[in-house]
């Protein structure tokens, strides 16, 4: 129960003095757990290389420790990983309150989305599913997570980016975007923190500190996070904000069942386009005249690509590169290659 009280004290801290009080409570608890006298300023200085006076200022509330020093200090005082996150959030909240009180400039608003895809067509049902997920989660006061899953070339990224641009006004805190692949979530968190205005030399060193700082910065912002090409659910969890208001859209080739089961993510399948929308895509790239001249051939091309926007776009590029080649000849080449 003592551990819970540290978290509760951290949640209540709003000033430097209150946060210093939590650190002193943590120091006393550490002494009880180790059956030793409380860590002296001298011993803490020996562990950290900081001066006695600086450590005294941190524990008495005279000054607020920088992020990396704060993380070191709470670990030395025996904070659990969960408490480290709560304390990191409290520290950033106190700092933000001081900045607001001093009238300093607001933090930057990231705009990291790629450009919208030209000639985007269709996906009305998928767009509606994204809208419903965000609206329903807002009513439930939870962070919506939508997982767009489908094969390569299905246009998952295009769909996510198109929807994100369309709904950007709902997220005045900005948009964060990252291609995950096999990336370490901690590395992505560092990138996001820099985009949110944290200088590189003040980034927390540990994963728990990074996540705590990230979530604290997003706690009072409505930010859209787009995570592209995810391969595992555990890549996503650290990047989900801890408080309602923001939203997360994930793309991947696998359904990420663990994310759906454990985090309540909404799964949206992204398959090939229906024939009519496949024709619209080719018409947008090749022109209505070329597509309308031989509808049967166009339908064959769409079917040969299973309606997937990626392969259809490649076919359109090949047709544009050889304008004298009839679409029927292109369809024959595609058929012969199958």
What is the level-2 CATH architecture name of the largest domain? 3-Layer(aba) Sandwich
Count of spatially separate domains: 3
Radius of gyration over C-alpha positions, nearest whole angstrom: 26 Å
Overall morphology: elongated
CATH homologous superfamily classification of the largest domain: P-loop containing nucleotide triphosphate hydrolases
Q: Please, how many helices?
A: 17
Predict the CATH topology of the largest domain: Rossmann fold
Which structural category fits the helices and strands? alpha/beta
Helix and strand succession?
A: HHHHHHHEHEHHEHEHEHHHHH
**β-strand number:** 5
Strand order of the largest sheet: 2-3-4-1-5
Question: What does the main sheet amount to?
Answer: 5 strands, parallel
**Overall pLDDT metric:** 84
Low-confidence segments: none
- What's the helical proportion of residues? 55-70%
The CATH class designation of the largest domain is Alpha Beta
State the distance separating the first and last CA atoms: 66 Å
How much strand content do the residues show? 5-15%
